[in-house]
Design goal:
The complex is a heterodimer.
Chain A: H1 4-14, E1 19-25, H2 34-44, E2 49-52, H3 63-74, H4 79-92, E3 98-102, H5 104-110, H6 112-122, E4 126-129, H7 141-146, E5 150-151, E6 153-155, H8 161-170, E7 175-178, H9 191-202, E8 209-212, H10 218-225, E9 230-233, H11 235-243, H12 251-271
Parallel strand pairs in A: 1-2, 1-9, 2-3, 3-4, 4-5, 6-7, 7-8, 8-9
Helix pairs in contact in A: 2-4, 2-12, 3-11, 4-6, 10-12
Chain B: E1 11-12, E2 15-19, H1 25-38, H2 42-56, E3 62-64, H3 66-72, E4 76-81, H4 91-104, E5 109-114, H5 118-130, E6 133-139, H6 140-145, H7 147-155, E7 159-163, H8 170-183, E8 188-190, H9 201-209, H10 211-223, E9 230-234, H11 239-245, E10 255-261, H12 274-277, E11 279-283, E12 285-290, H13 315-322, E13 327-331, H14 333-347, H15 353-365, E14 374-379, H16 387-393
Parallel strand pairs in B: 4-14, 5-6, 5-8, 6-7, 9-10, 9-14, 10-13
Antiparallel strand pairs in B: 1-2, 2-12, 3-4, 11-12
Classes of the chains: A alpha/beta, B alpha/beta.
Chain lengths: 272, 399
């Protein structure tokens, strides 16, 4: 049986469209908004949702997502709550894949086996653990895979070819290429070097390649969509949530609109 | 040695390892490869030894604290005088080593995290000497608490960046330094100040600091005629402790005690004692004992000593705890403060508040041992930096 992520990317490939993958932090600006925001992302044209699990020490994230984590944690958002949110989301959406993205310690504290079981049960499709390098992954992957969860891994500009090969073999769902040396939300995107690296990665894998970190607007999304299978946009959306944290009723329409802009940019890129 | 840790993947039993984002994995591999090549390279070692001797001022003395010994009425107390090193603490041993690595790797910029400011000062010092650009990340809270050290770093030409995220202390400074490193990985060397972080840092910081224990072995043979019976050191991240302990690990007759910051007491949540009251988890690139809540979020810590105010601990200490080779314990702020005053008034040595934790535990241990026993306490740093904290606690206004 193919996973929801596989089905989604297969359908996109047939339609010659690129995957739009928005990221939001669960519990930001407050837990009661998360499910509505997820639906808003889908209405705006999201193909996959990356739902961030907030962590007190998000060392790979820039200031925008750090602050999102702090807002979420102020409300005590824990992994158990986030899994409940996914369950609630699934009541109205059985089609859009949901990937949980976060750091290892909250998952390990929950218990990897218990997490994998519950994640599967509520309809999580994939897991991306930012600080779980491939070398340490053998202690975790079997449990996640046994419950049918796709294990998404990061590839970086610094990853040598042999390493990319190893990671590509362990990964499923898609591979997430980090477009720049830096943290999430940085601003030094170089499309030509991304294209070059993606070409090399494709020699080692048939998995879809998503690109993220530093894609701040529709123009950047469009440029990346010409070379990648999917575009991840996180900090640019989270910054909108931050800006509107005091007027939460405006977050859903604003995010839907941002997603539509990104969707158009991606569809333009695919039709060229 | 029979003790051979870490293993090839950087693990100390179940602890240690490399838990960082993918961008840093290759830089860590290169650092490890360079270090494995250089650690036995005669030119590198000669340069390191020369720096330790002529720049740091090593060997540091092993001082027989006769007055304390008499006062406490038990074992002989010996102080390993790391406080007499250049810049006033053991931190410089490691920064000299890592800066040399940076130079051999052709890096032009070093970054560091600092809590109390000692490691920041030690990094800024060596950067000035080697003409490296130096950026030090320091929690905003600590910038306020440790303003003399901030000024010292600036005098030395370093840029001090106040960190405003999270709890605005050492752990957040480390997050920020990791973010800088991931962004500037081509020209930048991250000088980690303690035996934490991802492999190979816990190993290489230990190796650079183990000059402390090697000297103690030679000095105690000369002065006592044998090895000491017990070693005592404070543990925050744990670099001064591992530096003292490591060369003794195979010496089964030598007891070792690591002393954590008990803050306002282990029964409260206001302490910084993950080995005594935390549990295993993953933080800052390694698996170790940490202080975290039921959701796995890292907890704020408290210690009177900024240098011990950290929710994790070096992974090798986690392993030495589980294996039973080292006994870990904690003393409270008040006990450390009393020891600070006692050492100052009895021996005329003002210790760092960090080191005062080790003194406080030695005070408990000494009377339980006979006068024919010998305890070596690592006096890891001098207390000049802490006089403002002490004065404030005692309601004295310093101008």
């Amino acid at each position: 049986m193919s996973s929801r992520l596989q089905q989604t990317f297969a359908a996109l490939a047939v339609a010659r469209r690129k995957a739009l993958i928005p990221y939001i932090t669960a519990g930001d600006p407050a837990p009661e908004h998360t499910v509505a925001l997820m639906h808003a992302l889908v209405r705006g044209g999201a193909d996959v949702i990356e739902l961030g699990v907030p962590f007190s020490d998000p060392m790979a994230d820039g200031p925008v997502i750090q602050l999102a984590c702090e807002r979420a944690l102020k409300h005590g958002t824990g992994l158990a709550d986030i899994l409940d949110q996914v369950a609630e989301f699934r009541r109205d959406d059985v089609r859009t894949p949901v990937v949980l993205m976060g750091y290892l310690n909250p998952i390990e504290t929950y218990g990897v086996a218990a997490f994998a079981r519950r994640a599967r049960e509520v309809g999580v499709d994939g897991v991306l653990i930012v600080d779980l390098a491939i070398e340490e992954a053998p202690d975790y992957l079997p449990e996640l895979r046994a419950h049918g969860l796709d294990c998404i891994f990061l590839l970086a500009p610094t990853s040598p070819e042999a390493r990319i090969e190893t990671i590509a073999r362990a990964a499923s769902g898609y591979l997430y290429y980090v477009s720049l040396k830096g943290v999430t939300g940085a601003s030094s995107l170089d499309v030509a070097s991304v294209a070059e690296k993606l070409a090399m990665i494709r020699r080692h894998t048939a998995l879809p390649l998503a690109v993220g970190f530093g894609i701040r607007n529709a123009a950047a999304a469009r440029a990346i969509a010409q070379v990648a299978d999917g575009v991840v946009v996180g900090s640019a959306l989270v910054a909108e949530i931050e800006r509107l944290a005091d007027q939460p009723e405006r977050i859903v329409p604003t995010l839907t609109e941002r997603l539509r802009e990104l969707r158009r940019a991606l569809d333009d890129a695919s039709s060229e | 040695m029979n003790y051979r840790y870490p293993d090839a993947r950087g693990h100390f039993g179940p602890y240690g390892g490399q838990f960082v984002s993918e961008t840093l994995m290759e830089p860590l591999r290169r650092l490890e490869a360079a270090y494995m090549r250089l650690k036995d390279d005669p030119d590198f070692l000669r340069e390191f030894d020369e720096d330790l001797r002529d720049y740091v001022g090593r060997p540091s003395p092993l001082y027989h604290a006769r007055h304390l010994t008499q006062r406490w009425g038990g074992a002989q107390i010996w102080l390993k005088r790391e406080d007499l090193n250049h810049t006033g603490a053991h931190k410089i041993n490691n920064t000299v080593g890592q800066a040399l690595l940076a130079k051999y790797l052709g890096k032009t910029r070093i970054i560091a995290e600092t809590g109390a400011g000692q490691h920041g000062v030690a990094s800024a010092t060596i950067a000035a000497r080697l003409d490296l650009k130096c950026v030090v990340y320091m929690g905003e809270e600590d910038v306020q608490r440790q303003s003399p050290n901030v000024y010292r770093m600036k005098l030395l030409g370093a840029e001090v960046v106040p960190v405003r995220s999270g709890t605005k202390t050492l752990k957040d400074a480390m997050n920020e330094a990791l973010r800088d490193w991931v962004t500037n990985v081509d020209d930048t060397f991250y000088v980690i100040g303690t035996v934490a972080g991802p492999h190979p840092y816990p190993m290489l910081v230990r190796d650079f600091q183990s000059v402390i224990g090697r000297e103690v072995i030679a000095q105690s043979r000369e002065k006592i005629g044998r090895l000491p019976d017990a070693l005592v050191a404070c543990v925050g991240g744990g670099s001064n402790a591992i530096g003292l302990f490591y060369p003794f690990i195979d010496e089964a007759g030598v007891a070792m005690y690591g002393v954590e910051a008990g803050g306002r007491g282990l029964q409260t949540s206001e302490h910084a004692a993950p080995l005594s009251a935390g549990k295993p988890g993953v933080l800052h690139g390694n698996r170790t004992y940490i202080m975290a809540d039921a959701n796995g979020q890292i907890l704020p810590t408290h210690s009177i000593s900024a240098g011990l105010d950290y929710p994790g601990v070096g992974p090798e200490h986690a392993w030495l705890k589980d294996s039973g080779r080292v006994t870990y314990t904690a003393v409270t702020d008040d006990e450390a403060l009393a020891a600070f005053h006692e050492l100052t008034r009895t021996e005329g040595i003002i210790p760092a508040l960090e080191s005062a934790h080790a003194i406080a535990y030695a005070r408990q241990l000494a009377p339980r041992l006979g006068a024919d026993r010998h305890i070596v306490v690592n006096l890891s740093g001098r207390g000049d930096k802490d006089i403002f904290t002490i004065a404030k606690l005692e309601g004295i206004q310093l101008t």
